[in-house]
Each structure stands twice: as C-alpha cells, then as structure tokens.
Amino acid sequence: MKYIYGCALLGLLLFSQEALSDVASGSDNAELAKKLSNPVAAMISVPFQFNYDENIGPLDRGHRTGLNIQPVIPFAISSNWNMLSRTILPVVDQSNIAPGRGHQFGLGDITQSLFFTPKQPSSSGIVWGVGPAFLIPTATDDLLGSKKWGAGPTAIVLKQGAGWTYGFLLNHIWSFASVNGSHDPTHPGISSTFFQPFLSYTTPTAWTYGLNAESTYDWKHNDWVVPVNISAGKLTRIGKVPVSFTMGARYWAEHTDISQKGWGVRFVATLILPE
Questions:
Q1: Could you read off the pLDDT of 189-213 as tens digits, one per residue?
Q2: Phi-psi region of 39 (alpha: psi -120 to 50; beta: other; left: phi over 0)
Q3: Pairing of strands 126-136, 72-76
C-alpha cells in the first residue's frame, strides 16, 4: 500500500506523455511554451502540480502525495509596469511522517507572492520582478503547516533567447505571529530562504526540457533541503485552450533527518487562460 499513490501518479505521467506524442505543434504553441517558462510573463496560467515523495521522517517510513494549485494572474498597474500575483495552495495527503501520528489529509499553508515587473525587458534582455511574499496559515492539521503568519521579500531575474530560459527566483520568509497568538514550542518561529535557479530549453515544436533546484535554507536550525528537478513538457491544445503537460523526477541532494529523501516524481498540468 505504501507505493499506491506513487505508482498511480507515475502511470498518469506515462499515459499523458503517450497521449501527447501524436499531437502536432505550431509556432503559436512554441511561443506560448516559451512564455510559460517565464514565471512573470503577462498571461494568466493555472498550474496543477502533483508531487509524490517518500522516505520521510526520522524512521524513513513516511510518504506524501501533494497537489499544489498555483494560479498566476497579471495586472497592468501603469503603461510600463505589471503586478503579478502568484499563489501556491497545497493540498496534502501523507502518512507516517512522524512516529505515532498516522495519516493526515487537508490544506497546507498558502504562499502568496506579488511581483512588480516592467512590461518590457531591459536593453540587455533581462526580465526581473520584486515584491512581497506572505505565508498564510491555512493548514487544516498541525502536521500540514507552520501555524505562523509570515512575510518577506521576493525577487526573480531571468533572460530568454534562442529557446533558452535561465535565471533564479528567491524569497525569504520571517514569521511574525502565531495562529493562537502565543508561543508554540511544537511550531517554532520561521526564518527561511527559498532559492530556485532554473534552466530550460523550448523547441520549435513546443517541447520544454527543464532543470532546477528548489533549495530552502532554515536559518533557525542551519539546515538545507535541496531537491533537484529534471523535467520534460509539451504544450498542446484541448479544443482552443492551450494546456501544458510536464512530467519529471527529482532527487533530494540535501535533506534533514525528517525531510524527504531519495527520489520523487512530479506531474504538472497547466491551463493558459485568456486575459
């Protein structure tokens, strides 16, 4: 039973890739796929990111299946500037991640980022954005969230050319209040840096191959966790709606005693909506 979620997800990945192998892609699809590689592109997208990981917890017996719902919505705030809203809402199903705690299912904490970004790249082709990030304690179980309100800065810098996209995204979150308004020894304060360097290549047939590291440093405990992700994705259309399907694997190059270890899998379906 331990591997049911992982096997089901892997089967979904393989099925999706087979279904897409016969789909022809035009230049419009390739251009959309390239824009999708830019996290602050001025288009509405809704990624549904499925993840499966195991070997979690001090006894390495835990496993977790997660769905991150990640709507990205741009707003024009002037003739030269956009504000882009990026929300990450996790839905988590996990078991045995802590001795004696059994199974949990529900919402995790929301991470809400706002990027203020110029509408046009710089003269050297650099795209950038800066703004605030917020941690919102929406978790429905103690083991699914931090029970903290948090905030801090976020930034992104990237460049695109000849099919390539490369850059980095980062944020730092400090907690400033607890849900219950008092000190909770089971959920200590947060001072955490997220750093994601990324590299991808988009082909003229709208395939995108990517490599990134979603590293997090916990300044309270001086711990790194660093999953390295490799992926392949295809942008196609269902009717007139552009949809991107991506499959990938990751390896936890750095981990703590209680975090995920070894290999994990990922599947992402992204809808691109008209503005």
A1: 999 999 999 999 999 999 999 999 9
A2: alpha
A3: unpaired
Cβ neighbour number for residue 127 with a 10 Å cutoff: 20
Domain ranges of the chain: 4-273
Radius of gyration of the chain (CA): 19
262: left (phi over 0), alpha (psi -120 to 50) or beta: left
Q: Which CATH class is domain 4-273?
A: mainly beta
110 Cβ contact partners less than 8 Å away, ≥ 6 residues apart: 87, 88, 89, 90, 134, 135, 136, 138
The rounded distance, in Å, linking the Cα atoms of 24 and 201 is 18
pLDDT of residue 167: 98
> What is the distance between the alpha carbons of residues 185 and 178, in angstroms, rounded to a whole number?
11
Quick check: 201 and 238 in contact, CB under 8 A? Answer: no
What pTM value is reported for the model? 0.87
* Residue pLDDT, tens place only, 32-80: 999 999 999 999 999 999 999 999 999 899 999 999 999 999 999 999 9
Task: Tell me whether residue 227 is exposed, middle or buried, using C-beta atoms within 10 angstroms of its C-beta: 0 to 12, 13 to 18, 19 or more.
Answer: buried
Among residues 139, 68, 136, which one has the least CA distance to residue 106? 139
| Residue 219 neighbours by CB under 8 Å, 6+ apart | 191, 192, 193
